[in-house]
Amino acid sequence: MNTEMPQTPSMFPVGLTGRFAPSPTGPLHFGSLVAAVGSFLSIKSKGGRWLLRIEDLDPPREDRHAPDLIRATLEAHALPWDGDVLFQSSRHEAYLEALEQLIELDRCYPCSCTRGMVQRSGKIGPFGPIYAGSCRQFPMDPYSVFYSWRVQTDDTPIQFEDQRFGTQQQRLESEVGDFIIKRADGYYAYQLAVVVDDAMQGVTEVVRGEDLLDNTPRQIYLQRLLGLPTPSYLHLPIATDTHGNKLSKQNHAPPLDNHQATQNLVKALTFLGHHPPAELHRAPPETLIDWALEHWHIDNLPAAPTTVTAPQTG
Ligand SMILES: [Zn+2]
To answer: Whole-model pTM?
Structure first.
């Protein structure tokens, strides 16, 4: 057993801790700035620390220049992170240990079904096809070379309080199904990595886009199985393009211009329901952030759920 893996809550770092955890698929765009600003202000206005974690779990989708671009953009926008940057690519041992823990608990199993098989055999739930649990009932072909690991779910309702959406509840088995924690190509799934790293880093508050709201019960389920603490959650409005799609690299969201940091921050704050006075619209980014830290209030956020078209950023 790897002794570096925190096993008990008493071993976690103490204090309020938030984080910004982008995938390094490209430079930051307006949607990622909103998540960075929101998570920074939420934890910093309470005197906590704000960590930067690069979620580089999926090398084929990544851009090797992205981590440096992300750091430069955060610096230009007066959003300094605390401590060292954590790269998920350096954390495979900890993910393996969590997987082994779940195997030991008899709460996960190998699955050799392809995506097509899952789509054909499963019913469609609110979040896509629900895996029918075929490999749970009929153990997979022992000679399969490519298989994923799925965690076995149950139908006990998982309830949590989101600071913006209020009480949320999901029944994993009937709404989501047994989900993948290690992919057939050998990479660990986001759901497992995020839970293991939030715990190891002592994250007490997760602030991110509302597109991840319905992932939260899966993460809470894993936290409970692994004996890890559950942070508080705040899901922010997400910026969309004029077609209603979330801003993303796939949708060709333009990268942020670091020379327009003040304008970008004014737009991000306005998007989050905070309206810096006109005399600050040409102030240095640090001044705007100081103003925002003083004025940050969760009640100013747009009511949930929202889809707000992002302003043009240059
Ligand atoms: Zn299967």
So the answer is: 0.90
